[in-house]
Design brief:
Strand content: 15-25%
Order of helices and strands: HEEEHEHEEEHEHEHHEHEHHEH
Low-confidence stretches: none
Number of strands: 12
Helix content: 25-40%
Shape: globular
Largest sheet: 10 strands, mixed
Number of helices: 11
Bound molecules: ligand PBG, zinc ion
Structural class: alpha/beta
Mean pLDDT: 98
């Protein structure tokens, strides 16, 4: 169909037509809010590069989660900032660790809000790497047991779903095994399957105090230059028993979301990460872009690429706009 027979503008002439032909929608059902839990009482430490986000003691965490729940957000994902770190990240799987306590309290106060836990060691290890470190290398197989133990401890605390973000090979199978072996076959795994070694995690690492103390994460997180490898990573996690496949970051990796959506029939999640949030906030603060519009455009683009759900620091603001 060619002009003048076909005039695409006909269907754009007013809001009602535009609504009718809209291909993608963003709803509060699609949003997952990340939260940072820290020890103590009445603690609400602002995170510099992430306006509106805080390291929250459990009392405040519950209040924020309650606001999210009231806005209709179905789930939060928890990250923990422990009191002490050590070589083995023991606070990651401690019965009374910060995430374990936060999960218990959240499920107690807000039983219908889904509580997802990020499963990783980097916030809990003194070296800041996501696994077991031997000399200067991160030992894959020696990490699996610690990561699986962490996931189990989250399930025991009441987590509705665990989300391993370490990028060790074989960890999904290891976690599935330990959960099933301990009567947690009902707890799903949201796998950070295609997680890239990204500079967009900068603000998060300040927030979670989880920057590596030597080297970087290139030996386990993916090379931003690679796409086919992401398909292999996703396929592997499907085989190992993942329930949701995640791509991270989101905006610079829309092609990966799109390809994984085509290749995999599991639900796909996208993590709109800290740096993506901070860039929009910073430019908006300078008056260089319209923050709200850029936020909504970014989120709809992630959905359009094929994500079924989005982990995003914009969850509250977007939900408020959607509900307005
Ligand atoms: C822990 C983890 C990270 C993020 C989520 N889980 C940081 C990292 O891998 O260094 C990043 C989230 C964000 O930037 O918003 N492995
Ligand atoms: Zn990590």
């Amino acid at each position: 169909m060619l002009f003048p027979d076909y005039r695409p503008r006909r269907m754009r002439q007013n809001a009602a037509f535009r609504r009718l032909i809209r291909e993608t929608t963003l709803g509060v059902d699609d949003l997952i809010l990340p939260l940072f839990a820290i020890g103590g009482k009445d603690v609400k430490n602002p995170i510099d590069a992430m306006p509106g986000h805080y390291q929250l003691s459990i009392d405040h965490l519950v209040k924020t989660a309650e606001q999210a729940f009231k806005l209709g957000i179905p789930a939060v994902i928890l990250f923990g900032i422990p009191d002490k770190k050590d070589a083995l990240g023991t606070q990651a799987y401690a019965k009374n660790g910060i995430v374990q306590r936060a999960v218990k309290e959240l499920k107690n106060k807000l039983p219908d809000l889904l509580v997802i836990t990020d499963v990783c060691l980097c916030e809990y290890t003194d070296h800041g790497h996501c696994g077991f470190v031997e000399g200067k290398t991160v030992d894959n197989d020696a990490s699996l047991d610690l990561i699986a133990k962490t996931a189990l401890s989250h399930a025991q605390a009441g987590a509705d779903m665990v989300a391993p973000s370490d990028m060790m090979d074989g960890r999904v199978a290891e976690i599935r095994g330990i959960l099933d072996g301990n009567d947690f076959s009902r707890v799903p795994i949201m796998s950070y399957a295609a997680k890239y070694c990204s500079a967009y995690y900068g603000p998060f690492r300040d927030a979670a105090q989880s920057a590596p103390q030597f080297g970087d994460r290139q030996t386990y997180q993916m090379d931003p230059a690679n796409a086919r490898e992401a398909i292999r990573e996703a396929a592997m996690d499907v085989e190992e028993g993942a329930d949701i496949i995640m791509v991270k970051p989101a905006l610079a990796y829309l092609d990966i979301i799109c390809r994984i959506r085509d290749e995999v029939d599991l639900p796909v999640a996208a993590y709109n990460v800290s740096g993506e949030f901070s860039m929009i906030k910073a430019a908006a603060k300078l008056g260089w872009i319209d923050g709200q519009k850029t936020m909504m455009e970014s989120l709809i683009a992630i959905k359009r690429a094929g994500a079924d759900m989005i982990l995003t620091y914009f969850a509250m603001e977007a939900a408020q706009l959607i509900n307005a």
